[in-house]
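Form 12-C: Joint structure prediction
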Amino acid sequence: MAELVVKDVALRLGDNEILKGVSLTVPAGEVVALLGPSGSGKTTLLRAIAGLETPHAGSIAIGNTLFFDAARGVELPAEERGLGLVFQSYALWPHRTVFDNVAYGLKLRGVPAAETKARVEKTLSQIGLGHLAARFPHQLSGGQQQRVAIARALVYEPPVILLDEPLSNLDAKLREEARAWLRTLIVTLGLSAIHVTHDQVEAMAIADRIVLLDAGIIAQEGPPTALYNEPVTLFSAEFMGSNNRLEGKLLESSGGRATIELFGERLIGASRIRGSAGAKATGIIRIERVRCASGPGPNRVKMQLKTSMYLGERWELVFARDTLTIRAYASAPLEPGEHFIEFPAEALWLF
Amino acid sequence: MPIVAYRLLVLGLTTLAVVAPLSLVIYQSFLTAPFFDPSAKAGLLAYSFVLADSDFWQAFWTTIAIAGGMAIIAVPLGALLAFLMVRTDVPGRQYLEPLILIPIFVSAVVIAFGYVVAIGPVGILSTMAKDILGFVPWNLYSLLALIVIAGLTHVPHVYLYSAAALRGLSTDLEEAARVSGANPFRVALNVSLPMILPAILFAGVLVFFLGFELFGLPLVLGDPQDVLVLSTYLYKLTNKLGVPSYQLMAVVVVAIIAVTAPLVFMQRLLLRQAQRYVSVRGKGLKTQPLRLHGWRWIAFGAIAFWLFVTVVVPLSGITLRSFVVTWGEGVKLRDVLTLDHYRELTDYPNVIRGIINTLGIGVIGGAVSVACYTAIALAVHRWNSGWTRLVDYLVMVPRAMPGLVAGLALLWVFLFVPFLSPLKSTMFSIWLAYSIVWLAYGMRLVSGTLLQVAPELEEAARTAGADDLRTKRDVTVPLIKYGMLASWLLIFLIFVREYSTGIYLLGPGTEVIGSLLVSLWGTGAVDLVSALSVVNVVMIGVGLAVAVRLGVRLHG
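Section 2 - Result
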């Protein structure tokens, strides 16, 4: 198996600039999640790799096979790229049985009937649907259809399998089970995969590496822990996790740390700032990192408790002061009134 | 075969089939004699002759009057009918729907014959009325009667588009108005009607356009009074000068197309406008139909009366006439009943051939046509290219040619192109003419089904390794199988009904019921015409029954 290399791909749909120069490398055996809000171009990038959309710039290649190169005018049609693609809607052919759906790719490759049968049966049993081969897609549940779609993309052993939001059509409970099942399947079979999703938890759970897209460019890429714990841009900080956002005035910034002023208090945090003192600065902190303290101290601000909500495993508290609202978690409800809220310096990112 | 070759081939053949007849007509109109005449020279002689002919202008203005009158009658009635059927609790709505569409599927000449034998001067109903009242309270052979009949028989066209628009209207919009305090009639007036206005406007232009295509009704009903419209003027021109006057006919054809082509273009624009409104779709919940209370049965009575006048009167008239020896004042039905007319049908070999040919063109020809339409639709399906627009316009071109005109143009093509001449007197010529005339309709049927194929189903095949053509064969075509079957049934109905397209191509071997009826009517063989008309209606009735039974939507 070889690595997939996407270089400076730009793509327009009508007047809409969807991808504005995206580069990406997927080594053999790695699972990459393309993550981003809707309209960020993640599905378009996947379709461009599959050969279903034509970029106007850049190149796409796998190993020594050039799929696409705008400069050299090379464009391999989708059917000659030999990739596996799982559609969001599954796109199972309603006029074919499960077996025939899965077998089609092998039939196109001229695999003899006996071998086709063996390979389809093997793939179907790998995904746990060996007994449903004779059914038609409409006779299957959503989860089963999703597995058939994956089997169809896997059966001819593509170098990379492309998954376009494959879990989004399942209901919430089933989705979590399918997530674990899919990760296990991909790792067991040693596949290279590109998984498109708008769900950050799904991306972190499934992928070895996350590529976060924002409006057609890569905002940040790296392992899930890096994306969650070390965001480099305001966008990636806000996109991952659940956050509080505070606006303050920058006092000083040096050596990776910065200080801002909020309600007359000095707050110290990890600096990603390019501006100079006196400018506006934005602080981002994950909800779960906000602490409620008993009294004044460094990086603490006095705020009014507005609402306490019971969420089952914990309480969510909403504090307010002027126009600022801060959400925090606690293991027990708090008394109404004023409290001190601490923003730990190592968890507060300043932009 | 690579997809590019396939596309080029299909596009080329379509262009040829559409453009060749039209360009031959235009070429002929600028000649001073028929194109086969060695003395033919380029010139505007034919134009000056036709444009100086007062009969031509008489026919032109009569056509405008009829087309306008039809629209004035059909549009309000059709829209009202749609509102009653879609939004109110008129009794028996589900049974009325197929009945309402009958006038679309029955041949206009058959309806015209039906009116003549039912309410003509010595018609069956006329003599009854005379027995009771002492006089006949109507005059079938007048321009007014022609306009009223043409208007009433085109109500279903308006109904179809208005009803589709009403059904597509989001019920939320109406419910929002109800909740805001509007009563049902205000809702209809302030919300529903403005929303479907583009569809009604489109239907109005369509009916006006169909007025220019009218041939059977004015031929049969206008003739005794010498009322000529453009199409009948063209038809009479054939015999007017004694010698083939192709150049004059070509000029008339150009004149007709000069009017219809802009109308076709206008319809296209209006349809797009109308569809923009329909795209706001509701949640598919069935809303409570509007309760009409005491008006229920009055509304039902009005619909029944319209059905009686446009369907029952002509069809029962022609049926009754086909079973009696003669009809006139003082004739007792019991004395004149007979089956002889049907027996006589078998005495005429051309009639027998006509019936067989009609079945053949409907069943086999229809299937081949649907295959061709599918081939064209597949060629442009998912083709991301400006060429698809060309196909859109190509398909529109034959729409501007009424059947009579297209048949004439095809005849000339067969005469003009040496290696095609032997095919002129075979059913191939009829099939080609029919397929070209109904190209736009057939393409709309097939494209409608293709639209329902989700693009991912085809993309999935592409990524699995199938090339473009293979994908079409393995995925697209199997998925539209039922849609193609439904299209075949509808094309069958259209081809069996068709009469005007085959008129100029009529000859030994190319008889079809429709064109035979027109030519037999000219010889005054009323007995034969009645029996043959009933045969035609029965064929269409069987087709319609199958379509309704299979749940085929009767409109594209």
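Section 3 - Comments
The longest helix of chain B spans residues 54-87. Chain B touches chain A through 20 residues (CB under 8 Å).
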